[in-house]
Specification:
This protein has 173 residues and is α+β, with helices and mostly antiparallel strands. The chain has one domain: Alpha-Beta Complex (Nucleoside Triphosphate Pyrophosphohydrolase). Strands 1, 2, 3, 4, 5 and 6 form a six-stranded mixed beta sheet that branches. Helix 2 packs antiparallel against helix 3. The longest helix is centred in the C-terminal third of the chain and has 16 residues. It is globular and about 50 Å long.
Amino acid sequence: MLREFSAGGVVLSWQQGKWWVAVIEPQRETPADKKPHSRRQPSPVLALPKGLVDQGEKAEETATREVREETGVEAELVTKLADIKYFYVRSWGDHQRVFKIVSFFLLLYRSGQIGEISAEMRIEVNRALWLPLDRAAEKLTYKGEREVVKKAQEYLRTHPELEGEPQKARERR
């Protein structure tokens, strides 16, 4: 069985007196031979930014790189939150079953504009946006990612010194 290793980030930004999290809406592929069964538009998939760990790269490096590439923002590592493990069957090529581990890290926003992503990344990402952290667990599509966001919320509850931290860092510069 094939194994894949990915890493991603729960990027938090303190804005307007509350925490926000960076999420992406991946591009959807609609095979030409499959027609929608209804006229209703499917709800968008909302996910955390993540991607495959490149050879020689540490998971933390992958997380910050994927965040930058998929959202347009720079973020600083705080801590590892969790590993999500699951199986999937490739829908392309060899249709092999794959065991996947995704390591998620808590990161704090430092700079950049959400959604300013390269034309090359538009193949993968339709858009990037900020969601209020207190609503993210109900808006994210994947159960494992909803659980990771809850871990980020718990981390914030036990580390109140982080509240307003990004603004403090900018003021120190």
